[in-house]
Amino acid sequence: MSTHLAARLQGFGTTVFAEMSALAVATGSVNLGQGFPDTPGPAEVLDVARAAIGTPLDQYPPGPGLPVLREAVSAHVQRFRGLAYDADTEVLVTAGATEALAGAMLGLLDPGDEVVVLEPLYDSYAAGVAMAGGVVVPVPLRPPPAPPGEVSTAPWTLDPAELRAAITPRTKLVLLNTPHNPTGKVLDRAELELVADVVREHDLLAVTDEVYEHLVFAGAEHVSLAQLPGMRERTLVVGSGGKTFSTTGWKVGWVCGPAELVACVRTAKQFLTYVNAGPFQPAVAAGLGLPDAYFAGIAAELEGKRDRLVTGLAAAGLPVVSPQATYFATVRVDGDALAFCRELPHRVGVVAVPSSVFYTPQHADLGRDLVRFAFCKRDEVLDEAVRRLTA
Ligand SMILES: *Cc1c(COP(=O)(O)O)cnc(C)c1O
């Protein structure tokens, strides 16, 4: 631990993703660790970015984002969620969902404010809350039982009593993530109603990270928390083009919400990055306007990859929890997940990430033996990983 690192960032050293990706290179392993696709996004999107480079779009875009993108975000959320947001005052373009989330925490939290989050939690949440001086209060999602060599398709569960017990007089907001990374869970309507009840009853705010909104598989349906009665006016909805258009390096995200809440994020954002990704903004706008068939198509393709991987993991004798959405499947291993993931590249030539890193220290035991495999990879890459795991 660095003696110079600020106290509020102690414990947020180098992410395990960096360690595992380096291990993948060093051992020549198939990397199913970090969740990024290994094929390019749609030509309709990429071509717009290529054409924009070398034009005035290379210069600072307007602070809230290019109008063409804000309008596209607004039309997209209207089309898929039936929610109307004013493109000028209720939509803000950010440097990925990551900046939208960090900006929301910096713009909304006072020191000591508590943020209720589902656990396991995406790694930037705890850091974002900590940078704002807030306190994370985790509420566990629990995996279904999965016998060795079998695929469980039951969803992870949220205990209503545990959610209610997490609320204190210091609670400021609920930070939701659905579809959820790393579990692949999609909150169903009853669960969303529970969250909405709690938020309304205690007069809280909600921030909902929906970057996987289009990567949802048959049998599950994504509903935004903002669609529930009385929730639009107290919810910030965070989205991103990274996962939807296979452009995770572009870092074009956004946040939609009532003007007053969006202004809080904008206040923080203007001193974080001010603006970002000039040439990529019109490209993501073009992507958001693609026909419904594009969005259904990426989900269907990814569902095939999910099945390919979970079947293979089960054939390798592992107990697998099949996700309802996202890029990720979870397995339970014998013993410690971090030790398992450090050995796996040497033993069989495959890299995964220990889901234990997505748990807070106080709940370390809940994730101790869980490992996350990404399946947003070419079929031959998934097949090679399975071949190595089975051998
Ligand atoms: C990938 C991811 C993000 C980050 O999105 P960017 O647009 O790349 O910043 C945020 N939340 C979750 C749950 C993610 O998986």
Automatic annotation (TrEMBL):
InterPro entries per record: Aminotransferase_I/II_large (IPR004839), Kynurenine-oxoglutarate_AT (IPR051326), PyrdxlP-dep_Trfase (IPR015424), PyrdxlP-dep_Trfase_major (IPR015421), PyrdxlP-dep_Trfase_small (IPR015422)
A GO term, aspect molecular function: transaminase activity
Keywords of the record: Aminotransferase, Pyridoxal phosphate, Transferase
Domain Aminotransferase class I/classII large: 30-389
Gene3D superfamilies: Aspartate Aminotransferase, domain 1, Type I PLP-dependent aspartate aminotransferase-like (Major domain)
Cofactor(s) the protein needs: pyridoxal 5'-phosphate
Entry-linked NCBIfam families: PRK07777.1 (NF005855)
PANTHER family found in the cross-reference section: FI04487P
Listed name of the protein: Pyridoxal phosphate-dependent aminotransferase
